[in-house]
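Q: How do we represent a protein-ligand complex in a form that can be generated token by token?
A: Start from the inputs.
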Amino acid sequence: MAKSKKNFNIAVIGAGAIGIDHIRSFQQHPAANVVALAEVSAQRGQEAADTFGIPDLVTDYQDLLKRSDIDVISIALPNFLHASVGIEALRAGKHVMVDKPMATNAKDAAKLIAASKKHRRRLMVGQNMRFSPEVQTARHLINQGKLGDVYHAKTSWSRRSGIPRIGSWFTQKQFAGGGCTYDIGVHALDRALFLMGEFEAAAVSGQTYSQLGPLGRGNGDWGKGEVDKKAKFDVDDLAVALIKLKSGRTVLLEASWAAHLPENDFFTSQVFGTDAGIMLNPLRLIRPSRIGYVTEEVTPSTPLVNENRMVHFIDVLLGKVEPYVKPAESLAVQKILDAIYASSASGREVRIK
Ligand SMILES: NC(=O)c1ccc[n+]([C@@H]2O[C@H](COP(=O)([O-])OP(=O)(O)OC[C@H]3O[C@@H](n4cnc5c(N)ncnc54)[C@H](O)[C@@H]3O)[C@@H](O)[C@H]2O)c1
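Then emit the structure tokens for the protein with nicotinamide-adenine-dinucleotide bound:
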């Protein structure tokens, strides 16, 4: 690993809605230089390069993989490209930060991990929600034993009208791999498993729906890629699942891009232990006391790692900290997401090996 290096040259691939955030976030680290950008849209690429002062802009990311001065590739591409571009970058000797979901199936996610091991380069999935002060504080309190023995979690991200633009790559299976399950269910699930400190599942029972998107309802405004009005909406817009972890603990997951909800966009996670419960958004501890139940609001802080995932990744490369999001955890998450689709298709519980 590049422990002895003091500075890292970064290339970001994709200058869409989150690619901009990748650039901005890396630029917060004094040891990170964003030196290049690859973007197929000349206009989006030029705009980002100008805004963030990036010296090199290319349309073909392969030109960047050939460059020996680039240490890190940050992937902000449509889901179907995560694994293939990630593997190419690892083979070219680059460290890889890839946005969620890790891949569009667990097999490809495992290949990414194998490439990272083979080429001895770091790989991290940008599960940015895990870095939020709220989640860090909740995890810290759970680590301290405030909940007692943790046995169950409920977790959700629910949007009323939040499909990332009907007709964009997000709503086409060939590019996205899946709908709200892969897009925002991944965050809700990763967060709950992280809080519980357990990622490996034994069995999953899930159901996905595609009710409003195909009717052109529930449209949102996320994303910068092109919209194809004729493209078929063939992904899920709502998903539910019961996940049984290997220890026997359980997680109830719900994700929706579009549903008739009271709020337009709301996420939360609740974790239940033998002594207390904890709830996010806002962060609260719920526990019994002699005078009845007490709900205590907790002020979020950052007790575990830097709140900025890209700053954290550079700190990992500098050898200062251990990775906060481990590839094996992201693979376990991917297996559960895949099992939700498989369970929905078969109408049966899916067991995970
Ligand atoms: N961590 C988060 O909270 C978060 C939030 C949003 C999106 N994401 C993830 O980030 C990824 C990108 O999402 P987005 O919202 O930025 O999408 P987007 O459509 O806004 O941007 C994708 C960009 O990739 C570009 N692109 C496509 N193929 C390319 C190629 N071969 N080479 C170079 N550029 C190419 C497109 O032109 C577009 O500008 C997705 O996987 C999404 O799931 C993560």
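Residues 128 and 242 are 24 Å apart (CA to CA). The pocket of nicotinamide-adenine-dinucleotide is lined by residues 13-19, 38-41, 44, 61, 76-79, 99-100, 126, 128, 169, 183, 223-225 (CB under 6 Å).
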